Q: What sequence folds into this?
């Protein structure tokens, strides 16, 4: 089981995602943000632990539950830390996600918020299926076995 290399420019990760869900396909999405929100993200004041993605009535992909704390030096700008944020993907990626979501039990969860090489805030999302209790126990056993192997190598 190969570990995924962690990005140098990572802001926050959803650490419980791989334990709670079996991850299928990953996508990088842009996020539509205001000025104070991007400044808060750069100061690592963001949480995606309870967040999930959904398609609204107009067919646009949004993220709900992503909390970006208020930026203190924003001045008079009104800030709503819990608003739904728009995600930016290509048409082909959106179509692929919609097709996968037709299967019962699939959902879209955020995995990581990071800053791209061009300076934009990006969100890594994945199509996932919830694990059952016995699957979670099996995952823990596999981690213990891997840890023991690494200890003696």
A:
């Amino acid at each position: 089981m190969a570990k995924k290399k962690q990005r140098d420019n990572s802001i926050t990760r959803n650490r419980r995602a791989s334990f709670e869900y079996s991850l299928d396909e990953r996508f990088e999405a842009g996020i539509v943000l205001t000025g104070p929100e991007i400044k808060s993200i750069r100061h690592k004041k963001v949480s995606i632990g309870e967040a999930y993605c959904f398609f609204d009535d107009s067919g646009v992909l949004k993220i709900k539950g992503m909390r970006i704390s208020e930026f203190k030096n924003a001045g008079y700008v009104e800030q709503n830390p819990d608003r739904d944020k728009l995600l930016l993907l290509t048409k082909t990626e959106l179509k692929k996600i919609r097709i996968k979501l037709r299967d019962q039990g699939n959902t879209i969860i955020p995995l990581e918020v990071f800053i791209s090489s061009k300076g934009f805030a990006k969100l890594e999302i994945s199509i996932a299926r919830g694990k059952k209790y016995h699957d979670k126990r099996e995952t823990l056993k596999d981690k213990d076995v891997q840890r023991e192997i690494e200890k003696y190598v």
